[in-house]
Amino acid sequence: MAPKNKKDSTLIIRLPKADRDAFVALCEDMDTSASRELRDHIRKFLKKNAKKGS
């Protein structure tokens, strides 16, 4: 049986290198990962806007 939270897709975004580097560095300073923080933001955004899309 596959894990419930299996990550099986990739999202590619383009942003300025300085923004990416600052974000990754801040995540490292906070002992987290950029991917974890982006996934968390996406989940919160989906939950907040779930009814707007219907």
Sequence-ordered SSE layout with sheet pairings:
Elements lengths: L16 H13 L4 H15 L6
Short description, anyone?
This protein has 2 helices and no strands. The chain has 54 residues and is an all-alpha fold.
Characteristic key phrases:
2 helices, mainly alpha, about 55 residues
Could you please describe the fold and organization of this structure?
It is built from two helices and no strands. Helix content is 52%, strand content 0%. The longest helix is centred in the last third of the chain and has 15 residues, at 34-48. With 54 residues, the chain is mainly α. It has a domain at 24-49. It is globular, with a radius of gyration of 14 Å.
Order of helices and strands: HH
Most strands sheet: none
Structural class: mainly alpha
Q: Cα-atom Rg, whole angstroms?
A: 14 Å
What is the tally of helical segments? 2
Low-confidence stretches: none
Residues in helices, as a percent range: 40-55%
Strand content: under 5%
Average predicted confidence as pLDDT: 91
Outline: globular
Overall strand count = 0
Separation of termini?
31 Å
